[in-house]
Design a protein that fits this description.
Helix content: 55-70%
Radius of gyration: 26 Å
Low-confidence stretches: none
Mean pLDDT: 91
Number of strands: 0
Strand content: under 5%
Largest sheet: none
Distance between the termini: 75 Å
Length: about 80
């Protein structure tokens, strides 16, 4: 089944990719779509990436200190 691209900007992008890679426009579209599908399959959702990172780097235990202006002034050496 043929694919007709009605958007001039998209057609131009396909033509640029085809010229840069030495491909036909059909092969350029196939290359771009295949690459995008592969990229999406290997990507974990952000929630899972953060969960895995948190397992390796857990929050430190609470200290009981109050993080107010005086606390931060003390950290920075201000009076």
């Amino acid at each position: 089944m043929p694919l007709y691209i009605r958007d001039d900007a998209t057609a131009e992008l396909v033509a640029q990719l085809a010229k840069a890679r030495g491909l036909t426009k059909q092969d350029a579209v196939k290359l771009a779509v295949t690459a995008e599908l592969a990229r999406g399959q290997n990507e974990k959702p952000l929630r899972e990436r953060i969960r895995a990172w948190r397992e390796i780097h857990p929050f430190p235990p609470p200290t009981g200190l109050k993080a107010d202006k005086g606390f931060f002034d003390d950290l920075s050496g201000e009076p």
